[in-house]
Amino acid sequence: MADQQSGTPNAREVQYWNSAHTRAWADEYEVIDELFAGLTRVALDLAAPKPGERVIDIGCGSGTTVLELAARVGPSGYVLGADVSKPSVEKARERITAAGIHQAEVVLCDASTHEFPANGSDLVFSRFGVMFFADPVAAFANIRKAMKLDGRLALAVFRTLQENKWATAILAAVRHLLPPITPPGPEEPGQFSWGDPARVRRILEAAGFQDVSLTSHDPAMPLAGRGGAAEAASFMLRVGPVVRATSDASEEQRKEVRAALEAFFQNHEGPQGIVLQGAIWIVTARA
């Protein structure tokens, strides 16, 4: 399957996810996997992929969920991962090859416009890969065309910014060092754009889905290993809400932000290390 994402309506997001600012999502996937491990298991269990099923994984990143889905559907099933980030897709392909798995592949594409095989998928899954579509209704109408009649949808998305204390607290700790941060509007793409349950239902129902359900989950998010506050501060300058906010910062500003983040994390170290709480929806629906 050819790599396709030319003419995408999501050009700004495609550019961002192929920039140096997001390279860590490919290079440091093991750390990110640890951060999301608990919620990933919960989302996959609710998605309930079965042996022999065909699955599409939207925004599959470096391939962790593709590999897990492939293990669950087995050799008689098939998993197609889709992502706009070339470095992440390349990493996912390397991992699939290294694992010797033949029932999975990954395509570089914008899922909102990509022509997936029609009526072929039992399940569409995503872990934080659907919040960035410029026109989410059109995107999900396109995705739905790839699903079998009564096929299942299972998505992990963040709830509101206000509920995700890990993000609001981190941003608050460095806001005085950064230019004013203008959050996306309620209908604009963004990490927390699927926080409003009414908007989620409106998007999916307008795209033709039914039986839309949202299950709340508040995962513990471990932000550092043995490196403690210094490691957590460094990580948050490579992955997370601070990255976009510091994309145009000078080296001196970045040093100040790093110091402020380290001080913040020092105040949040506990017996289990640095663990902050997230707030997500697991959204399910039927085509």
Distance between the termini: 24 Å
What proportion strand?
15-25%
Q: Please tell me how large the radius of gyration is.
A: 19 Å
Biggest sheet, spatial arrangement of strands:
3-2-1-4-5-10-6
List the helices and strands and how they pair.
Blueprint: H1 11-16, H2 24-27, H3 29-47, E1 54-58, H4 64-73, E2 78-83, H5 86-99, E3 104-108, E4 121-127, H6 136-145, E5 147-158, H7 165-174, H8 197-206, E6 210-217, E7 220-222, H9 228-236, H10 241-245, H11 251-266, E8 269-270, E9 273-277, E10 280-286
Parallel strand pairs: 1-2, 1-4, 2-3, 4-5
Antiparallel strand pairs: 5-10, 6-10, 7-9, 8-9
Short note summarizing the structure:
This protein is an alpha/beta fold and 287 residues long.
What would you say this structure looks like, in words?
Helices cover 39% and strands 21% of the residues. The chain has 287 residues and is α/β, with parallel strands linked by helices. It has a domain of 195 residues: Rossmann fold, CATH 3.40.50.150. A seven-stranded mixed beta sheet has the order 3-2-1-4-5-10-6, sandwiched between helices. Helix 3 runs parallel beside helix 4 and helix 9 packs across helix 11.
